[in-house]
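Budget justification, computational time. The allocation requested in the original proposal was used primarily to generate structure tokens for proteins on the priority list. As evidence of use, we reproduce two of the resulting records. The first is shown immediately below.
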Amino acid sequence: MPAITVSNLRKTYQGVPAVDGISFEVREGEVFGLLGPNGAGKTTTVECIEGLREPDGGEIAVLGNSHVTNGNGIKEQIGIQLQTTGLYPLHTVAELLRLFGSFYRRAVPPDELIGLVSLEDKRNTRSKDLSGGQRQRLSLALALVNDPDLVFLDEPTTGLDPQSRRQIWGIVKDLKGRGKTVMLTTHYMEEAQTLCDRVAVMDGGAIIALDTPHDLIEQHFETTAIEFEDRNSASLDLLNGLAGVKDAKRDGGLVTLYSLDTPRTMEALLAAARAGHLHFDDLRVRSATLEDVFLKLTGRRIRD
């Protein structure tokens, strides 16, 4: 049985469709990513699934249940970490975990959760005195207080430093290892590519692609990406005309050439620079990534 089934979900605001008849499933035990630029409809979709927002049409099943017929039963089985969690500032980490645990019939002992998110030395620290990364880990522990079968994580690492981000990644991997299902929204393509078994790309209220990160990359790219900072805004006609280039994209001053023949493209690029047609910095060559797929499908990077 799928952990989540969404069929023809629709939600409209003032006559404008935010979610336009989408359908998908989240498999039990997988980490499923929902990606999209601001306004794509992903937050509305997740809030409808969580039961925080009522859809205008379609059907949603969560762990085999409907919010209409068994909303309280669903709440006992899911955990939600929002982008911003309001924490009582004068309560300690342990006090908050005990308080949230009291809301459920089944609760994980605070010390177990504290160990899971590596906050042992902050057990008796008030939440207002925690760092941003520590508050984010506490927020995740609160989402897990009822030992949920399904966990929703909304931008769990936004604003965190690289070390804190990787600590959160480790917790998500641990959840998957324990058989939990995770639905994740994120702006970080590296995060989605690292953590997610499958991802759905949303744009304009519709799902425009859904597959594993690996298969999405293979479907859309047989090329190598050559990136550089362009100092004189060379035309896309010039860039697309370089030997071996299948496609050229510009994002501000950053140019990405997708090449079918990396040595020929590099030779042509250097020749154009010697001739004065190009002036570039920070030249690098890499394999295509999920970020490239997103740019190709939506025409913009995810933070646009």
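The second record produced under the same allocation is shown here.
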Amino acid sequence: MKFQELKKSLLNGAMPIYLIEGEDAFLRNKAVELIKNAFLTFPEFNFDAFDADAVSNEPDAFFATISAYPFMADKRIVVLNGFYPTANELKGKMFKRVFTEDFETTILIIVNEKPSVNLKKLERVTLVDCGKLDEVTATKWVKQECLNAGVVIGNEACSLVLEFCRLDMTKISTEVKKLIAFAGKGAEITKESVEALTHKDTDYQIYELTEKIARSKNNEAMAIFTDMLNKNADKQRIFSAIFYHFRRLFYSAISACDSKELALSLGTEEWQIKKAKEQAKNFSPKRLKQINDKLCALDGDFKSGEIMLDDALFNSIFNVMIEGE
């Protein structure tokens, strides 16, 4: 099920094992919170959390915990973080019991950022997909948070928040709290306040940067690049984001696949491909090919130690983007 379906499903009772899986940390934490709020009482006695290494080192302690009875309650909850078992591990004596026996009074919640094919195959495991929310659902969340705080936010301002944060709910929740506090109860969050106060995600700034380059607005492009360096000391993250952004643009320009197929093949999100297809129209396929060839060369030179990271990053801007064809 999708994250947004979880709350309703909990009204029908608990499933024995939940696999909370997806890239959005805010949604993963929220999913665990929803399950705990629905079924957990006396958490000091009936809640335990393990990580995968602890389970590997002390499997007996983990098994004893999930097989124990709750204290003065119907359920106990056990969270297992970062668990990516192999098929052989699941066939082992302990895990075979964990995933086949019915521990009626225990809810096991496995929380993973990345997919686990082996866990998804198990009959008693219920998947909760915590990938990025779609724009409609994220908009509803933002507007409800503002309504709860007695603050108004219009469609344009709300869309800007989502775009600046690239639909990352962890970032959205942080920025919305800041905007609510700035506006104050009874006031409105305006487009201007969003533009002035919201921290723009690196990927969004690269999208902006690319727009300026496509329109030969090099001074504005350099201003964005300088701002990125001032706000984000992780230069390798910036270089990688530039590299993969232009890779998406190139394949979006030349591929006959639809957005969903292309997103799957590139290991990215469908909404990112849709944005890339729009932006790729500002460049000729030839120019995108030239840019990608240069970025690949810079990446190879950096990884082989022929150039320093600073050289790779600045060359990607000066020699690749601004010079153009």
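A brief technical remark on that second record: The beta strands are 17-21, 47-51, 76-81, 106-112, 125-129, 152-153, 188-189.
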